[in-house]
Amino acid sequence: MMEDKKWDVVIVGGGPSGYTAAIYLSRATLSVLVLAGTKAGGQLMNTTEVENFPGFKDGVMGPDLMMTMEAQAKKFGAEVRYEDVTKVELIGETKRVWVGDEEVKAKAVIISTGASSKMLGLGEEKWMGKGVSTCAVCDAAFFKEKISAVVGGGDAAMEDALALAKYASEVYLIHRRDSLKASKIMQERVTANPKIKIIWKSEVVEVKGSEKLEGIKIKNVETGLTTDIVVDGLFLAIGHFPATELFKGQVDLDDKGFLKTGITNGDVKVWLEGYPTMTSVDGVFGCGDVVDFKYKQAITAAGMGCQAALDAEKYLTGKTASW
Q: Domain named FAD/NAD(P)-binding: which ranges (predicted)?
């Protein structure tokens, strides 16, 4: 019975950070259980070709990359279950994680539940990977000489618009207000780019398409007038929310809900003497987009998974992290 076993490490989440952590820990001959969830693989399961992950010179499909990482973790002995964690108790020497009514015990836990991009709520998810995207850095090259639109007004939206402008024939930047929230330098770069047209005081109210995205309808928030725009790509840059609801009251979170670890809380002592990926609870580590509010790339998530695994291994063997 699973309840009778105490795992060395239970990893909650199965994206690039979780699977990388599983590879390192299982290869170190520790017993590892990955509770990958019913949406195993994270955001890469909704992407098409990934061209910027090292080692794949011809690119790799997002789902294929995740399945390869999972298979590599299993090769070294990690067990993977596609079930959602429903409850946790992380304080104390033994960590307890529940899958439904089943209790799973562990000496250490790595949280790699990721983050989700905020959506418009217009059913646009059906065109994810078919014209709709939340990562221009990942997908801009697919829109060469095509028309794209970016929704948002912060630095992330500016970065997306500029990334797209390198390839697209035209980029619409759609923003609800009459001024941008982005930093001054990013605003200057966007307004100076002849390919980018800012549509002020407007919001997307409809997303259109059949097999792929074909266009959007926008509405002026002051006049109520609507306009149909033909676009090949729609990029959403309206923020992310980390999947940390399960961990509220268990570990410290920042004001946006991201996990606070030694990497992000500015604690120099943690860097010098402890474990940079550890959360506020001993034996509980965080990695990937559930911690990273800035870069949000598959490769940085995988790197953080490696860091969390190395920290967890040292923690379990009683060693102090050496830096």
A: 8-305
